[in-house]
Amino acid sequence: PLSGVSLWAQPPGGRVALGDRLVLGCEVAAGTGPLSFSWHRGDSGAPLGTGPRLELPHVGDEDSGHYQCRASDGASAAESPPLNVTVL
């Protein structure tokens, strides 16, 4: 089964200036087979994107919040701990 799903952010810590670029990445420590990824913010059901990276080229105030990455290998799925993004 999948395990060790984690997030990284650039800039580090998810603190980004209004209008700047934010890149989030998802990594999986253990898992087999082709992986798929989806990105979620807060309780919103619709994914923000798919793939191991999510790029927001010009962040706005509405982009603040908790982000999570969900990884799946087809047989199992796991979520990263939430990362709080703060728009300064």
Automatic annotation (TrEMBL):
CDD domains: Ig. InterPro entries: Ig-like_dom, Ig-like_dom_sf, Ig-like_fold, Ig_sub, Ig_sub2. Residues 55-65 have a biased composition (Basic and acidic residues). Residues 1-86 form the Ig-like domain. Residues 39-88 are annotated as: Disordered. It comes from the Eukaryota. Pfam families: Ig_3. Transmembrane segments: none annotated. SUPFAM superfamilies: Immunoglobulin. This is FCRL2 protein. It comes from Atrichornis clamosus. The lineage of its organism: Eukaryota, Metazoa, Chordata, Craniata, Vertebrata. The gene is Fcrl2.
